[in-house]
Amino acid sequence: MGTNPKVYSIKELNKYIRMKLETDHVLGDVWLRGEISNFTHHSSGHMYFTLKDSDSKLKCVMFASHNTRLPFIPREGTKVIARGNISVFERDGNYQFYVMAMQPDGIGSLYLAYEQLKSKLEQEGLFASARKRSLPPFPKSIGVITSPTGAAVRDIITTIQRRYPLIPIYIYPVLVQGKQAAPAIVNAIEAMNRFGECDVLIVGRGGGSLEELWAFNEEAVARAIVKSDIPIISAVGHETDFTIADFVADLRAATPTAAAELAVPQITELLQSKNRLEQRLIAALRLTVRIDKERLQRVRRSPFFLHPRRYLLDQAQRLDRLKELLNERTSRLTMKEHARLAKLQSQLAAHHPGERVNYAAKRLSGATHQLELASTALVKSGKLRLQSGIKQLDALSPLKVMARGYSLVYDVDKNRLIKSIEDVTVGDDVQVKLAHGGMTCRVQSLTGGSNDEKSSEER
């Protein structure tokens, strides 16, 4: 029999299927078109419904965190295009569509293109706030790219002239809807950058449907805004309308009128601010003058200016005292330096080469005398020791003993001193050394010791 197969629980299987569906790159982000049926808006805020077409149905759920941003209210029978992902509800084992965004199907294709371009540009970082530039606080001129006949251009001009009437406005007329609108807007942005006359550009139009605003959702327009060296304010549609141009522009205005208000300061506010600053400056100057006047009065009342001679006499006395102290310190310093100089001269004299030579000569003479005395004493002492040694040697000399009649007897063959009769035998030749001369003898007999006994026995 083979190995036992692994047995899964229903929960484990549903969990595995869910993991497979959620990791599928197609089912993880999918767009669907269908008709809403069985719609229920639960008290929790979640929406439960079914999307169907002529051939099939699919259960759907849209959580409250997503449906609060819907631009319309779903109804039974509404045809929509929805975006979301496919997953499994593990408890029931049913797969369903989790909706994250939804639009009526009438503009579904445009909305899909809008979302795709928005996602692409956002991933490129074109929406990042770090890339965007701040507007100049006091622009020298304003450029407006819009339709010359719409209400938007009138609102912009009126608002700028009311808020900041001194600034020139350059209008670049373009189409703002239709197939030719996007190229016209791109050319206008590039031309304004080449002219270099404006510090701020306002690009926009009045409100309208998604189709009417579509030129501002074109990728070419978005990239032209990004490449512009001049900061751009996007003013497209009404407050609830958002286009791709709004996301990539340096600043987004809810309406063309709001764009004009953001582009230029309010001259009345500037005048009021100027007046406040002038008042603060005048008050600060008056305070400074008053403080300086008080300081001047205090200086005038000071004893130094009231009785200047007294201060001069005090300074004169102080100067005299300083002179005395300077003289005293100079004298003490001079005496100290004289003493130091004398000491140095004495030390220098002691270290003079001539003095050192004389001193060395004296030391050499004394050392020579001491050496002579020591040598004489040493020689004398040596002579005495020599004489004493001679006397002792003379007293101990064998010649002295031999002079008194003693002699030395040597073995002729062995050339050794004979000290006992045991060293010779009868008949041996011996050498006798006297005080004066010597002689050779032969032993005839021996007396004393064992040899004497031997001789007697032989005889």
State the CATH class of the domain at 139-268.
Alpha Beta
Strand content: 15-25%
Cα(first) to Cα(last) distance is 141 Å
The CATH architecture assignment of the domain at 139-268 turns out to be 3-Layer(aba) Sandwich
CATH topology of the domain at 139-268: Rossmann fold
Tell me the number of strands.
13
**What gross morphology would you assign?**
elongated
Structural class: alpha/beta
Mean pLDDT: 85
Side by side, the strands of the main sheet go 1-2-3-5-4
What can you see in these coordinates?
By secondary structure, this protein is of the alpha/beta class. Among the domains are: 10-119, OB fold (Dihydrolipoamide Acetyltransferase, E2P), CATH 2.40.50; 139-268, 3-Layer(aba) Sandwich (Rossmann fold); 404-458, no CATH class. The protein contains 14 helices and 13 strands. The strands form three sheets. Strands 1-2-3-5-4 form a five-stranded mixed β-barrel. The chain is elongated and about 180 Å long. The relative contact order is 0.05. Mean pLDDT is 85; it is low at 451-459.
Features:
459 residues, OB fold (Dihydrolipoamide Acetyltransferase, E2P), alpha/beta, single chain, elongated, five-stranded mixed barrel, five-stranded parallel sheet, Rossmann fold
Give the topology:
Layout: H1 10-22, E1 30-41, E2 47-52, E3 57-62, H2 64-67, E4 79-89, E5 94-104, H3 108-123, E6 142-146, H4 151-163, E7 169-173, H5 181-195, E8 200-205, H6 219-227, E9 232-236, H7 244-248, E10 251-252, H8 256-263, H9 267-300, H10 303-306, H11 308-350, H12 353-396, H13 398-403, E11 408-411, E12 429-433, E13 438-442, H14 449-458
Parallel strand pairs: 3-5, 6-7, 6-8, 8-9, 9-10
Antiparallel strand pairs: 1-2, 1-4, 2-3, 4-5, 11-12, 12-13
